[in-house]
Amino acid sequence: MSSIIGVVAPRLLGPALILAAAIIVKGYADVGDGFSAGVIVATALALRYVSLGWELAERSLPVLRRAPQVATAGLLIALATGFAGPLVGDPPFTHYPRAGESVIHIGTLELITAVVFDLGLFLFVTAAFVVLIHHLARLAQGGPR
Amino acid sequence: MSHPTPLAWLAVVIAALAFGACLLLAMSGGGRVDIPWIPSLGIRFELEFDGLAAMYALLATGIGVAVFTYGAGYLPIHLHHAHRPRDDDRRFWPWMLLFMAAMVVLACAQDLIVLFVAFDLTAVASYFLIGFDRERRDARGAAMMALLVTVTTAVLMLIGAVLLSVEHGTSSIPTLIDVAEAGPVTTLATLLIAVAALAKSAQVPLHFWLPRAMEAPTPVSAYLHSAAMVAAGVLVIGRIHPLLALEPMVLDGLLVIGVCSIVIGGLLSLAQDELKQVLAYSTVSQYGYVVVLYGLGGPVAAGAAAFYVIAHAIAKSALFMTAGTVILATDETRLSRLGGLVRPMPLLAAASGAAAMALAALPLTIGFFKDELFFAAATERGPLTGIVAVLAAALTLAYIGRFWLRLFAGPLGIEPHAVPRLLVVPILVLGVLGIAGGIVVEPFARLAEAAASVTYGAPVAIHPAYHLDTRPENLMALAAWLVGAIILVAAPIRQPIVTRVAVLGGRLGPRRWYGALLQGLSRLSDAIHGEEVRDLRRSVAAVLVPTGVLIGIGFLATPSAWDYRIGDIGREDLPVVVLLGLGVGAALTVTRDPGRLRPVLALSVLGFALAAVYAVMAAPDVALVAVLVEAVYTLVFVAVFAVLPLSQRAAASAAHTARRRRDLAAGVIAGIGAFITIWAALSREPSQRGDALELIRLTPQAHGSDVVTVILADFRGLDTMVEITVLAVAVVGATSLLRRGRSW
Q1: Which domain holds residue A113?
Q2: What residue ranges do the domains of chain B occupy?
Q3: Does A136 touch chain B (CB under 8 A)?
Q4: Which residues of B touch A29 (CB under 8 A)?
């Protein structure tokens, strides 16, 4: 059992990231959003923590140590897109470009504020879960020896 | 060591600028801010710098300048004594400034809701200021007590405000004063607001937080507990006085509470030995005067009340600062150990002497006029209030006389060490102001007149002056000095009496009720919590049992709940049937298998099967979430099993068998309940409410084709924002609990 996880977990992160990206990009046309994408990536990361232990997991992927900053950034991105409206006199969470206006397309991805909000959501959810897993794992397995 | 920090000077400069701005506004005839705040409820952010606002704003900023200057010198020494770093004053000055700003907004507020918000802001700032020495348990308890007493009563104020705005359709105070008529709802509402105001002004029986709040650093006491926080209460009464005056009984109630506060505060002040305690109880008593004056009603009393607040604020803040300077210079807080400080500290003795004379209403001080006006208002009502007024003034003279004489006269108690000049100069300024007000009273009288006109609702004129004749006010003043001097001199008779009063108060007083109430609540909460977390089964039951009961009540209350249908099963339903069959098989495995890993895997099979059902039944978003949840659960189980020791079979005891039977019964009941509920839900046509259809219609306009995503990220973006904020708070809370707040 644990050997299966040991083999699968390290190889799961790449596909998980691609899946998450697909979910965010296709989010508006198909199932999925930033929250789901965040949970998928966080699950893949959690599997790494389970199989490698927190020290090795973080040493092999140093970007994990930036999780608190990433979570803050995600929250700030979401806040900024949500409350850009009131700054120019619109209600909060006004959607730019407005309904009916033309939108820049990159493939199926449409550049609208809601997608940016979704991206902030993704960053925050992923990083917040990593922070929680990190603390729980340290508590369960003890500090650096 | 004793040099003020730049932050302290910044605070002083801000206070001085604010004072200057208030002065300019007051001289230019005020100003107005009126912008819609919550238009759907008709609440406006309405501020007006009228007479009442001018008086309290000038007091808050003016006394603020003096106290902040004092604090700039005081705080470094205070922190040094407590072995804390100098820059810990960044936990101090922002709150002082916030407090000052909240007081100014409170003074100008013309809307009950704005009033409430500013009122609570002062309470929040006071919590952090009183609890500034947070390493001391007493300071934390005192801060919590002040917060609980003033904030729980402030909720009454909010209820009163809501009642008034529902009854009269507006929360704007000037409009309310125009339209409100006497009636039970209005009376109840004004009573609730009055209770909040009285608690804030530390009136009996809710006075006990104030003496306890003396745990605060002295600048806090000198500011909050003389001119600002306690003044907020009488400010509110002065602001809504025309509403209170609609019902004479309310005013009579104020009168009674004021008299009780004067007497109890005065007697207890005489009984105290700690410097700041003497002053704290004196504040209770002094604000009792103001409440009595508001209870008397009428133009004379309104003018007297406003003037009283000015005179008291100047004198009392100077006396609090005196106490602080003496405590720093001698490291002693008890009157009985101190004495004879007039020779080593002549300047301080003179400055605080002037302040004490002002509070005791001696001639050639601003205080003389406060009592002259007080006597005039009291005799207008009748001889009884006149006698009470004289006794009150006598008590004041006695406790302030005792305070000053014990400190400065007699043989030297403890040799003081030198103190920085900043700890004396502000007291000197306020002392000089107290004397100046006794010679040129005109500016203060005009300020009080303007404030009283707002309180009374019509122009008020007061004429404080010296008259060398036998008018009642002069005779009453003479009588008060005489009686006060007798009480002061007759210490052997006085002290046993007031000590007994203090002991009785400690035994029966409201502070005891407060403690009992708090302990009772804590015990109740502990008991409930203890029941809930005794074992895992109870923690689960604590959530599931109330849910089940609520669902049952919902069924009983819904008339169409008993409509159960068995639909047809067609060919296209085959995948669902197969998946559900898989789910049933997995569920049976979970209950029958004695192993550890297999039940977990069976559970996840069950979960994935249900996720697949969602996917088939056109709810792909739910399916996605279900898959994620199942994956996480399975991971958690596997991770936990990796840590758990190998299982040991429990011996099959009688208790074990009984528990298994109970579990079986609970499981069967829960299963039947869930079955009935889901069947009932599926028997109904899904309701097509207009809201949902509208959202589906709008989805293409929002550049989307998946309704759920568009709702989450766009239509209900604010909800999502709030949800992730809650998640952020939860993560911060969990990390503080798990790792003491380390973010990584």
Answers
A1: 2-141
A2: 1-245, 247-489, 563-645+661-686, 688-744
A3: yes
A4: 704-706
